[in-house]
């Protein structure tokens, strides 16, 4: 019913446009004003009806296509506007208004120099060009002038700064450290959890393997806490991302989604980190963050170490710092289960993390 009403409305709009076009042509051919336009003969009436019917049918025939295009455009606009701040929209609108004002001033200067038809054509083109240029210039400058309205903000009003969106993968949710990092305020911007990540997490939680099942359920608990404490968007495979359903690999889906949304990717997966970096996607690896914030240990530093087991080489003992960093203690094999004073001799950084070598004090 709604589609039929929409089609009738389009037919009426097309007929009105056809009638207006007939009036414009009569004005130009007979050099008269709009108030002097009249249908004085059967020929004029026939041409008017022909214009109305033809344009009405054109609009009516293309109604289904226009409806589909309108729905698709509306969904795209709705999705894109989610990531655009109010100040950006205002600056873009201001740019368009300035462009149209300039076009109005220019059009007034040559109004008496051109015939009416040429004046109308040139003016339409001028308005379109200057309006577009105003929008383009404002859009190009809006990032650097994002705080242009901050001076007009109400004092004491909370300001929300839009950061780069972050896409989270399954490994981060299961790992769980992301919750504490978010609570500490080290992650800004919108947090996006794809629907296919939720599906993968649900499959892990339903696994027949006991270890996987425990990890999956822990990940679901972490996810519920994140959603209850922070603004998290669940990205479903809408029309724009429907093609992701045809991709079997979750990692490939994550990379394509992050590129589509201009988002960063948060992960603990070493291989996904490398592949995403190759695809020019910024990756925030929680393992790298954990290594970066470990305490700095330098050779010659004194420390107390609990030796817990024997090392690989002869007479070596193994201990650990509170953050899990392994310490290899020379001549520590005879001091297992003891707390000894030792001096750091060297520190080695490996792909797996940091390794410290120490010697027991005499």
How would you explain this protein's 3D organization?
Its cofactor is Mg(2+). It comes from Mogibacterium pumilum. The protein is of the alpha/beta class. It folds into 4 domains: about 80 residues, no CATH class; about 70 residues, no CATH class; about 130 residues, 3-Layer(aba) Sandwich (Rossmann fold), CATH 3.40.50.1010; about 60 residues, Nucleic acid-binding proteins (OB fold (Dihydrolipoamide Acetyltransferase, E2P), Beta Barrel), CATH 2.40.50.140. The protein is built from 12 helices and 10 strands. The radius of gyration is 34 Å and the shape is elongated.
List keywords for this structure.
Rossmann fold; PIN_dom; 4 domains; 362 residues; 10 strands; five-stranded mixed barrel; alpha/beta; five-stranded parallel beta sheet
- Order of strands, widest sheet: 3-2-1-4-5
Architecture of the largest domain, according to CATH?
3-Layer(aba) Sandwich
Q: Report the portion of residues in β strands.
A: 15-25%
SSE string, helices as H and strands as E: HHHHHEHHEHHEHEHEHEEEEE
Structural class: alpha/beta
What is the CATH topology descriptor of the largest domain? Rossmann fold
Number of domains: 4
| Gross morphology | elongated
Main beta sheet, described? 5 strands, parallel
Spans where pLDDT lies below 50 across 5 or more residues? 146-161
CATH class of the largest domain: Alpha Beta
Number of strands: 10
User: Rg to the nearest angstrom?
Assistant: 34 Å
Give a topology summary.
Blueprint: H1 2-30, H2 42-61, H3 63-81, H4 86-109, H5 116-141, E1 166-168, H6 170-175, H7 177-183, E2 191-194, H8 195-205, H9 210-229, E3 232-235, H10 250-261, E4 264-267, H11 270-278, E5 283-285, H12 286-292, E6 302-310, E7 317-320, E8 326-330, E9 339-350, E10 353-360
Parallel strand pairs: 1-2, 1-4, 2-3, 4-5, 8-10
Antiparallel strand pairs: 6-7, 6-9, 7-8, 9-10
């Amino acid at each position: 019913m709604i589609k039929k009403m929409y089609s009738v409305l389009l037919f009426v709009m097309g007929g009105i446009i056809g009638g207006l076009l007939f009036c414009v042509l009569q004005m130009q051919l007979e050099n008269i004003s709009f108030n002097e336009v009249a249908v004085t003969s059967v020929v004029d009436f026939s041409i008017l009806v022909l214009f109305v019917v033809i344009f009405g049918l054109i609009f009516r025939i293309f109604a289904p296509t226009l409806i589909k295009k309108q729905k698709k455009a509306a969904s795209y606009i709705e999705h894109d506007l989610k990531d655009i701040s109010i100040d950006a929209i205002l600056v873009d609108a201001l740019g368009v208004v300035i462009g149209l004002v300039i076009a109005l001033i220019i059009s007034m200067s040559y109004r008496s120099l051109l015939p009416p038809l040429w004046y109308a054509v040139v003016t339409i083109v001028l308005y379109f060009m200057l309006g577009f240029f105003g929008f383009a210039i404002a859009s190009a400058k809006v990032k650097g002038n994002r705080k242009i309205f901050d001076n007009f903000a109400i004092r004491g009003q909370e300001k929300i700064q839009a950061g780069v969106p972050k896409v989270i993968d399954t490994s981060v949710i299961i790992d769980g450290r992301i919750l504490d990092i978010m609570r500490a305020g080290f992650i800004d911007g919108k947090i996006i959890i794809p629907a296919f990540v939720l599906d993968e997490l649900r499959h892990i939680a339903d696994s027949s393997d006991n270890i996987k099942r425990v990890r999956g359920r822990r990940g679901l608990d972490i996810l519920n806490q994140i959603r209850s404490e922070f603004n998290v968007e669940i990205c479903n495979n809408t029309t724009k991302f429907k093609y992701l359903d045809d991709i079997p690999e979750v990692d490939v889906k994550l990379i394509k989604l992050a590129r589509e949304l201009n988002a960063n990717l948060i992960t603990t997966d070493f291989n996904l980190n490398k592949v995403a970096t190759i695809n020019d996607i910024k990756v925030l690896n929680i393992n790298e963050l954990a290594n970066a914030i470990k305490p700095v240990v330098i050779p010659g530093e004194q420390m107390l170490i609990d030796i817990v087991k024997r090392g690989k080489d002869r007479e070596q003992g193994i201990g650990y710092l509170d953050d899990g960093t392994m310490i290899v203690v020379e001549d520590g094999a005879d001091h297992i289960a003891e707390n000894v004073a030792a001096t750091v001799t060297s520190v080695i950084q490996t792909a797996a993390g940091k390794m410290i070598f120490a010697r027991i004090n005499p």
